[in-house]
Specification:
By secondary structure, this protein is α+β, with helices and mostly antiparallel strands. Helices cover 46% and strands 16% of the residues. Strand 2 and strand 3 form a beta hairpin.
Length: 92
C-alpha cells in the first residue's frame, strides 16, 4: 500500500501524482473519509498470465536429449530451493 493521499488533494494535483508514479515508481492509496478507495500505482511490466498458453504453444518442441536435460535442470533447481526460506509475495 502506497502513501495515503486524500482524493481531493490527488484531484487538485493529478498531473504531479501521475508524474511521480510514472517517473519515480511511487504508489499512492487514495483516501476518502478516512477509508481507502483506490490505488494509484505503476503498471506492472510484462505479460499477463492469460498469455501463457499462447507463449508455451509458440515455443519449439524439445528433442529427447533436451527434454531430459530440462527435467534434470528442474530437479536440480527444486533441490537447491528446497532449503530456501519461503518469501511472502504480499509482504512489503
Amino acid at each position: 500500500m502506497g502513501k495515503k493521499v486524500i482524493v481531493s488533494e490527488a484531484v487538485r494535483n493529478f498531473a504531479d501524482y501521475i508524474n511521480r508514479v510514472a517517473y519515480r515508481g511511487e504508489s499512492f492509496t487514495l483516501v476518502r473519509g478516512n477509508k481507502p478507495v483506490a490505488e494509484l500505482a505503476p503498471v506492472v511490466a510484462g505479460r499477463r498470465l492469460g498469455d501463457l498458453p499462447y507463449l508455451l504453444a509458440s515455443l519449439p518442441p524439445l528433442g529427447e536429449a533436451e527434454s531430459r536435460d530440462f527435467a534434470d535442470d528442474i530437479s536440480a533447481a527444486r533441490t537447491d530451493l528446497s532449503g530456501a526460506p519461503v518469501r511472502d509475495p504480499w509482504g512489503s
